[in-house]
Amino acid sequence: GCSLDWSREVFTMDEQRAASVKAAFLRFHKEGLIYRDVRLTNWCCILRSGISDIEVEYEDLEAPKRLSVPGHPKDRTYVFGRIWSFAYKVDGSDEEIVVATTRPETMLGDVAVAVHPDDPRYKQLHGKQLVHPFVARKIKLILDPVLVDMSFGTGAVKVTPAHDPNDFACGRRHGLDEITVFTEEGKMADNCGMFAGMMRFDARVELLAELKRRGLHRGEADNKMRLGVCQRTGDIIEPMLKPQWWVDCSGMARRAVEAVRQGELKIIPAEHERTWYAWLENIRDWCVSRQLWWGHRIPAYFPTVKGEKVEVVVAGSMEEAREAVVEREGCAAEDVSLKQEEDVLDTWFSSGLFPFSCLGWPDEQAPDYAAWHPTSLLETGQDILFFWVARMVMCSLQLTDRLPFSEVYLHAMVRDKRGRKMSKSLGNVIDPLEVINGVSLASLFAKLDAGNIEPKELAAAKKMNEEEFPLGIPECGSDALRFGLLAFCGQGRDVNLDIARVVAYRNFCNKLWNATRFAFLYLDAADGQAPFRPAELPAAGGAANLPLLADAWILSRLAHAVKTLDAQLTAYDMAAAVTTVYEFWYKELCDVYLEAVKPVMKQEDAAAKHATQTVLHACLHHGLRLLHPFMPYVTEELYQRLALLAGEPRASIMVAPFPQPAAVAAWASEEAERDMELLASLAASVRTVRAAYLKGPLERHAPEVYIVCRAPAAAAVVASQLETLAALAKSSRSPPPTLHLVAEGEAPPAGCATDVIDASLEVHVLLKGLIDLSREVARLQKEAAAVEGRLAKLQAKMAMPEYATKCKPQQQQEDAAKAQGCEGELAAIGRAIAQFEAAA
Question: What is the dihedral of CA 539, 541, 547, 549, to 10 degrees?
Answer without folding.
Answer: 180
